[in-house]
Write a structure and sequence with these properties.
734 residues; alpha/beta; 6-stranded mixed beta sheet; 34 strands; coiled coil
Length: 734
């Protein structure tokens, strides 16, 4: 059919690769198991896919395509009726077969046995017919990849949307009804006036609350698909569920045990036992929508729905939109915390905490195992540069033991910045050295040159760092207690507000890191599966809030801390992740209710007490006995450094700064200013060099009141960008 819709509407690029590898000319050739609602591939087809695409991408592709099939067929009554009939036929076959195999059947006459065989043949024929009907129904349903008629796909590019007299999109769903739901009526009528959730809260908010509860209860698979719509952690990483609090893995490492045969008994075995532990962190979601916020959400929903080409009816519903926004933000929050998290929870229970402090994330674990426990030894190879990045990665790989670096399934955790730098430099190398069109301008493979077993794992949340880590993908484990917890939203109504909350648990860990050895241990005990450079993992700007438990002890989880504004106790002691040689920074808080101090005592060797009620920072050094010595202190927050830009030419680039000082040797007339943004102001200064001036007149994109001559370093003119023209707004000329 000319207008037939694709079975896999969301996965057209994936589908093209899938069909190309397996040689399918049209979508109808794709084998589907109608009963199990998934692809039905042969072992040979699986091998072909994995050879062409890789094992992990193939698994991810099949999971996505199976999800599309299930989504298209889920809850279809026609399909269910056929399946029920097929089940009944199979049950009848089973009973007849059992009857024929019954020992008592051997005494039956031929006519009775023939009748049973005829019934069995009839049942087998009915099964074949019903299976064909099921297959045909599945194929027909898959022609519409997003649901059933009448409003399975809502055509929003038409002048009007299709609705029934009682329901939005003719869905028949409670939450799409027009009755008592002015937001649905508004969309139907194209109205401008938003629902008055504030003054009509007694009727509107309980209705909306009930719709949300009904939606979640009736559409559990929809809620799960909402979470799968948004980017999470890499698919190659390991995953485990049912972790209530902690999980441990034990390891045994053996030294050599074989020796040459001789007389006597000379045992030589040595074993080392080690464990790695992972922890899930308890998290919560607390959201309150007041009337104004619900109005804003409604306005956004109405605005966005007019720009959509088509989607599931549940995505178009107001309640579906609300839940999708919650799921989207939760998915992003979880991903950021799993990578950047540094745990710190405390303070007033009614004060919201930062998502990034809800758990220890992957970068924290790298820091903890490298710099605190020292369970693996980093490479001392300096820092990467844009010029050396390709050689830098290769040098690091060569420092990994050969028995490991030849393995499959290794990955390189790298920031987006350094991956882009690698692509650029590797592209130049390919262009010069390889007879291929790959990399003429940019290298686009997901692994280093000639290292296909090392996958570049770009962590978009790993920023402001030169750190690069190497490990096995399956060595990283995403831990949850019950995955469905995160979509178990509870809705309550109070006064004019609607409250939404949920509780769940999540964490991340390395399954194995390395072993700490002591003098005399055999070389075989020097095992590690984490490798990295020794660059700082976090930037100096990363600070973790610390909260007062009234003990007078500062508990250190990370060495760069900022005092919470509710702190009310002098600090006389410190404990936690302290390592000799470590630098500790404690930043105060000008919002403290009263003056509290870091005390000068036997634990803290200070130049006197340090007041914590300023935005300054005290820097400390951890001694061998874990006492701390003051290195420096400030009482004010650091100011952002402003660097003046020297220039010698007639053209200035406003992207380089806001203050320009002339340091040329000849008198120069400014003729043009490049770049810059609306309302940006720049100052141009002259020079004290004798007989050298800077002049400006109305020319190019520069407009001055009168011609200006800057004859000294103190003379300047200020220009402001107004619609692309740099107009004079101030001048100081002696």
């Amino acid at each position: 059919m000319a207008n037939e819709k694709p079975k896999f509407g969301k996965l057209q690029k994936t589908l093209a690769a899938f069909m190309a590898v397996l040689g399918f000319s049209k979508e109808d050739d794709i084998p589907i198991n109608a009963e199990e609602k998934k692809l039905d591939l042969t072992a040979e087809q699986m091998v072909a896919l994995e050879k062409a695409l890789g094992k992990a991408p193939t698994a991810q592709m099949i999971k996505a395509m199976d999800g599309e099939i299930k989504a298209a067929l889920h809850g279809n009554l026609q399909l269910k009726a056929i399946q029920d009939e097929l089940d009944a036929i199979l049950k009848e076959q089973e009973l007849i077969q059992e009857d024929l195999e019954n020992p008592e059947a051997k005494t039956e006459d031929d006519a009775t046995v023939s009748a049973k065989l005829e019934r069995l043949n009839t049942a087998l024929s009915a099964e074949t017919k019903k299976r064909k009907e099921l297959e045909a129904t599945v194929q027909e349903l898959l022609k519409d990849s997003e649901g059933d008629v009448p409003a399975a796909i809502i055509k929003l590019n038409k002048a009007t949307m299709e609705h029934s007299a009682t329901h939005l999109f003719a869905s028949g769903k409670q939450y799409d009804a027009f009755d008592k739901r002015p937001w649905n009526a508004r969309l139907r009528d194209g109205g401008v006036k938003a629902t008055d959730f504030t003054n009509d809260s007694k009727s509107t908010i309980p209705t909306l609350q009930g719709d949300l509860e009904h939606f979640v209860r009736q559409n559990p698979t929809v809620i799960e698909s909402l979470f799968n719509d948004y980017e999470e952690l890499p698919a190659e990483w390991d995953r485990v569920t049912n972790v209530q609090d902690r999980i441990s893995s034990g390891f045994v490492i053996a030294a050599e045990i074989v020796q040459g045969r001789k007389k006597g008994w000379a045992p030589k075995q040595k074993f080392k036992f080690d464990t790695e532990e992972g922890k899930v962190y308890r998290k919560k979601i607390d959201i309150t929508f007041d009337g104004y916020e619900l109005q804003e959400m409604e306005n956004t929903w109405v605005g966005q729905i007019k720009n959509m080409e088509g989607s599931h009816p549940w995505k178009m519903s107001f309640v579906g939109f609300l839940l999708s926004e919650l799921a989207k933000q939760q998915k992003v929050d979880d991903r950021i915390a799993q990578i950047n998290g540094i745990f710190s929870v405390g303070g007033d229970g009614d004060t919201p905490g930062a998502n990034v402090n809800s758990q220890n994330g992957l970068r924290y674990l790298w820091w903890y195992y490298r710099d605190v426990l020292k369970k693996y030894r980093p490479f001392n190879i300096g820092l990467p540069t844009e010029a050396n990045i390709v050689d830098y990665i290769e040098k690091a790989i060569l420092m990994i033991p050969e028995e490991n670096r030849k393995d499959q399934g290794l990955e390189i955790q790298i920031s987006d910045r350094w991956k882009r730098a690698y692509n650029k430099k590797a592209g130049e190398i390919y262009n010069l050295q390889y007879s291929t069109d790959q990399g003429k301008k940019d290298y686009s493979l997901d692994h280093p040159i000639d290292r296909p077993n090392f996958k570049f794992q770009v962590l978009k949340d790993q920023t402001q760092t030169d750190f690069i880590g190497f490990t096995y993908s399956k060595n990283i484990q995403d831990m949850q207690y019950r995955p469905e917890e995160r979509n178990m939203f509870t809705f309550t109504f109070e006064k004019r507000d609607m409250h939404i909350f949920a509780d769940y648990r999540r964490g991340i860990r390395f399954k194995f890191v390395g072993t700490k050895t002591v003098p005399g241990d055999p070389k075989e005990f020097e095992k590690q599966v984490l490798w990295s450079n020794n660059a700082p993992i976090f930037s100096n700007e990363t600070k973790v809030p610390v909260f007062d438990d009234k003990s007078g002890i500062l508990k250190v989880n990370y060495p760069n801390m900022i005092i919470d504004e509710t702190w009310v106790t002098d600090i006389a002691d410190i404990e936690g992740n302290l390592v000799p040689g470590q630098i500790i920074r404690i930043t105060g808080n000008a919002s403290l209710p009263s003056v509290k101090n870091l005390k000068d005592n036997a634990k803290f060797d200070l130049q006197g007490d340090y007041a914590l009620n300023t935005p300054g920072t005290i820097t400390l050094f951890v001694n061998e006995d874990k006492t701390l010595k003051e290195l420096a202190r400030t009482t004010t927050a650091p100011e952002v450094a402003v660097t003046d830009v020297g220039f010698t030419e007639a053209v200035i680039d406003a992207n380089e700064g806001n203050v320009f000082r002339f340091n040329g040797e000849d008198t120069t007339a400014i003729t043009n200013i490049l770049n810059g943004v609306e309302s940006q102001s720049i100052k141009i200064y002259g020079t004290d060099t004798a007989d050298v001036d800077v002049t400006l007149s109305t020319t190019g994109n520069i407009h001055v009141t009168v011609n200006a001559t800057l004859a000294s370093a103190a003379d300047y003119i200020q220009l402001t960008n107004v619609a692309g023209t740099w107009m004079e707004t101030k001048r100081v000329i002696a």
